[in-house]
Amino acid sequence: MSEEIQVKKSAEMQAIEDKMTMLVQTGRIDNLIDLLAVVSDQIEMTTTPIVEKMVHSIDNIASAGFVTENAVRYAKRESAKNEVPSLFGMLKLLKDEDTRKGLAFMLNLTKGIGKQM
């Protein structure tokens, strides 16, 4: 009492079946399933705190770039309008609070880099 049912396939359905058959025969279907599992895991792990942390990190990088760009512009402008200072002139620059702040920052930065090495 088994009846055979014939399904008419369109050209598009036949093309899909051929491609799926090729994926199964070559084992690539397993790779696709693994890839989908990884993507799914990433979506599940992407919580609000993680997104906020990523945004905060990007914001910090952008801020650092902005500060650096402004500092370089200022240094170029000051260097262009002043001659190269002598050793005594360099010491006079240390009287300026902003110079001392910048120098202290750079020294702390190099200290932090040294600790990472």
Judging from the principal axes of the Cα atoms, what is the shape? rod-shaped
User: Percent helix among the residues?
Assistant: over 70%
Task: Give the rounded overall mean pLDDT.
Answer: 88
* Gyration radius, rounded: 32 Å
The SS-based structural class is: mainly alpha
Series of secondary-structure elements, N-terminal to C-terminal: HHHHH
Instruction: Give unreliable regions as ranges.
Output: none
Distance, first to last CA: 78 Å
The profile of the biggest β sheet is:
none
Q: How many strands in all?
A: 0
- How big a fraction of the residues is strand? under 5%
Number of helices: 5
Can you walk me through this structure?
The chain has 117 residues and is mainly α. Among the domains are: 11-45, no CATH class; 85-117. 81% of the residues lie in helices and 0% in strands. The chain has 5 helices and no strands. It has helices at residues 11-26, 28-45, 48-81, 87-93, 97-116. The chain is rod-shaped, with a radius of gyration of 32 Å.
Short structural summary:
The chain is mainly alpha-helical. The chain is built from five helices and no strands. Among the domains are: 11-45, no CATH class; 85-117.
Features:
81% helix, mainly alpha, 117 residues, 0% strand, single chain, 5 helices
Helices and strands in order:
Blueprint: H1 11-26, H2 28-45, H3 48-81, H4 87-93, H5 97-116
